[in-house]
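Late entry, evening session. Most of the bench is empty. Finally got around to the prediction I had been postponing all week. Sequence below, unchanged from the version circulated by S.P.
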Amino acid sequence: MGGPGDPPEGTPEGAPGGEDEYRSVVFDESFIRAARLQEFSARERLGDHAPAVRRRAPLRRGLSRQALVLVVLIALAFGTAVYMGLRHPYETPAAGPTEPLRMSVVPLAPQAAVPGSTDVEQLYEQSPAAHFRIGAEGITMPATRRTANFSDSQVVTALATAKDYLVASALDPEVLSGATVRPARILLDPDLLDQFDQSFDHPAADGQHAPTGWLVRFDSSRAELADSRIRVHGTLQAAEHDADTLEVVADHTYVYALRPAGAGEEAAASLFTVRRELHFRFDRDDLRRHQAETVVSAVQAGPLACAEDSAGHLRPLLAGQTATAGGPAGTDPYATGGVTAVCGSLAQSAQPKV
């Protein structure tokens, strides 16, 4: 049965005062602890004029465990990103050791007296160099295209660096006179500098330490340029050596007009021909630094006497001079092909017809 005031069938569902009216209000422990007011107990209210409630000190809310973990994770992620930026886990592997330059310098002895003239232009016009361009213009850049592992710009950089080395080592008047080697030296891979310096400090015809394998320079006590407009003709070719290295092959003939040192402009001049085939290699560090690895240098030069030591300086035979001995057959530095002889004879077809 219901109470005295209750309907016989209980309180109607949804009627005011029913339990459903307060079901949405939940007084759990966290709600009670967060309350700012706290009612005094009956014992505490016995005191005179004691208020019914007291104000509680606000709770000190710290970071929850989940929030603390999140902050730690964010800090770790940020630190990892900074570390990855400073030290990339996929760095390009270091390039292999640089090969030392292998070189050959072959003197070409004239078969007759060296022709000469006071008219330098006439000498050039009557020689195979008549159609050659002057100076760096004779070192022409080929059409370039990207390779499987190198971009167009990287191929162009390799060719341009090779050209710069050719100009510095065979066309610079200060280098030709033996006054300096720096223009060529600064373009070399650092791993080659010890070999380069040893070649000039202690020249040797051992296939690795001949200064004339690195650059063209004349014995300034014997000869000097009669005309600074050096004639040049040849080719540059670039290709991949492997996935990490570009190779450039430079094959050029240089023709110099020379006269006896200190003789003055009235002295007869003669032509001196140097054919150089250089093989350069470039890894990505070389391309970035604008430097080259020279791995092969094959040089033919004449007119020279075979008995002369051409390792340190080139000592040309000048107008009217003859060689005491030559090689087994005539060698034409204007013709293509490998260089194998220790000493050769300069073909008559390579000399001016004066």
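Two things to note before I forget:
Confidence is low (pLDDT under 50) at residues 88-94.
The longest helix spans residues 65-86.
Will write this up properly tomorrow.
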